[in-house]
């Protein structure tokens, strides 16, 4: 075998050592801290609030014939001299509008709660505003959706329980442990 020019022989040796692990680089997937107990309880309270509100809406929907009949008599007393078709239309608009408004507020609350669970701190304030809007909507709708008698007291109790549960869940979302969980660690880069 001929030796390379310059008289140096080529030696077969191991490749150079690899550099050690670097601990300065961030992992490619950020670690998500576990959901604190206060946030889990708040989420459960909100779910129970949604269940109470939806139970009222479902009950109102199932008893819509009696509710619409009661509303027709109320509208007929307010607008004397109108024909039965316009009284029925006005009662339908009031009934379905009340159910739609309550359903819309519930959907907005659920969307804001989903944003909170996605670790967005601003969503707590949105929940506060939507819950504040829920109260007047509920008071207005109660004039049209609460039947008389014992059934009406159950509706009022369910609505009251739903509002108290939602308020309790909202308070828990403003506790320090929930606030610390909601603060995102921004990646450096």
Account of the protein in words:
The protein contains 6 helices and no strands. It has helices spanning 37-62, 64-78, 84-117, 122-145, 150-173, 176-182. The protein is elongated, with a radius of gyration of 31 Å. The mean pLDDT is 86. Helix 2 (64-78) packs across helix 3 (84-117) and helix 4 packs antiparallel against helix 5. With 189 residues, the chain is mostly helical.
Quickly list its features.
single chain, 189 residues, mainly alpha, elongated
DSSP, total strands? 0
In DSSP terms (H or I, runs of 4 or more residues), the helix count works out at 6
Q: What share of the residues does DSSP label as strand, in percent?
A: under 5%
| Overall 3D shape | elongated
User: Between the first and last Cα atoms, what is the distance in angstroms?
Assistant: 55 Å
Largest sheet entry: none
Extract low-pLDDT stretches: none
User: What structural class is derived from the secondary structure elements?
Assistant: mainly alpha
The whole-number mean of residue pLDDT values reads 86
Radius of gyration: 31 Å
The SSE order reads HHHHHH
* Percent range of helical residues: 55-70%
Topology:
Elements: H1 37-62, H2 64-78, H3 84-117, H4 122-145, H5 150-173, H6 176-182
